[in-house]
Amino acid sequence: MAGSFVTVACPDCENEQTLFEKAASEVACAVCGHTLATPTGGKATIEGEVTDVAEAR
After folding, report:
1. Which domains does the chain have, with CATH numbers?
2. Continuous H helices in the chain
3. What is the rounded distance in angstroms from the CA atom of residue 14 to the CA atom of residue 30?
4. Distance of CA 17 to the CA centre of its chain
5. Pair 12, 34: CB distance under 8 Å
6. DSSP assignment of the chain
7. Tens of pLDDT along 26-50?
8. Which of 11, 25, 27, 34 is the most interior residue, by most CB within 10 Å?
9. Is residue 8 within 8 Å of 46, Cβ to Cβ?
């Protein structure tokens, strides 16, 4: 499985959440419910600022 985990800051509430960059389902912020990632068949469309990247091993 090639891909990385990224930490994304929510544009609405500034909550930081870690998610897989190739998310297969929609990812919502755990605090406010804002959509952080939308699947596209490859890399997900990430809404918000990516603050950290943890490379896959």
Report:
1. 5-54 (2.20.25.100)
2. none
3. 11
4. 7
5. yes
6. ----EEEEE-TTT--EEEEETT-SS-EE-TTT--EEEE--SSSPEE-SEEEEEE---
7. 999 999 999 999 999 999 999 999 9
8. 27
9. yes
